[in-house]
Amino acid sequence: MNCRSLSEDKVNYIAYEYICDQYHLNFLCLTETWCNHDNVGNVYFPGFKKASHYSRSTHKGGGVRIWCRENVDITPINLHSYCIEKTFEICGIVAHWRF
């Protein structure tokens, strides 16, 4: 989902509209978070943990982030070397499912 700046109002909206038992989401992937290295840890969704992210270091805007359910075992993939600010921004994870 392209959130075009992850403000407190948008966090509340996403939590209310999408992070509910109705959708059974295990992952939440957002683009254009506009988070930077200073505020990257400030966004919280109930029942979810931060899984991976990329934030711009020199330009405004952009950024991508993945959250996953707290009970999902994941390993972040370091893709920062592939990112080019304002051109290509990516983050990734490997989910380890236990059946």
Structure description:
The chain has 99 residues and is mainly beta. It has a single domain, classed as Deoxyribonuclease I, Chain A. It is 10% helix and 28% strand. The strands form two sheets. A three-stranded antiparallel beta sheet has the order 1-3-2, with no helix packed on it. Strands 4-5 form a two-stranded antiparallel ribbon. The mean pLDDT is 89. This is Endonuclease/exonuclease/phosphatase domain-containing protein.
**Helices and strands, in N-to-C order?**
HEEEEE
| Termini separation | 28 Å
CATH topology: Deoxyribonuclease I, Chain A
Q: Helix amount, in percent?
A: 10-25%
Level-2 CATH architecture: 4-Layer Sandwich
**Class per helix and strand makeup:** mainly beta
**How many E strands?**
5
Strand arrangement within the widest β-sheet reads 1-3-2
Mean pLDDT: 89
| Domain module tally | 1
- The gyration radius over C-alpha positions equals 13 Å
The CATH homologous superfamily corresponds to Endonuclease/exonuclease/phosphatase
- The CATH class turns out to be Alpha Beta
List segments where confidence is low: pLDDT < 50 over at least 5 consecutive residues.
none
Largest sheet: 3 strands, antiparallel
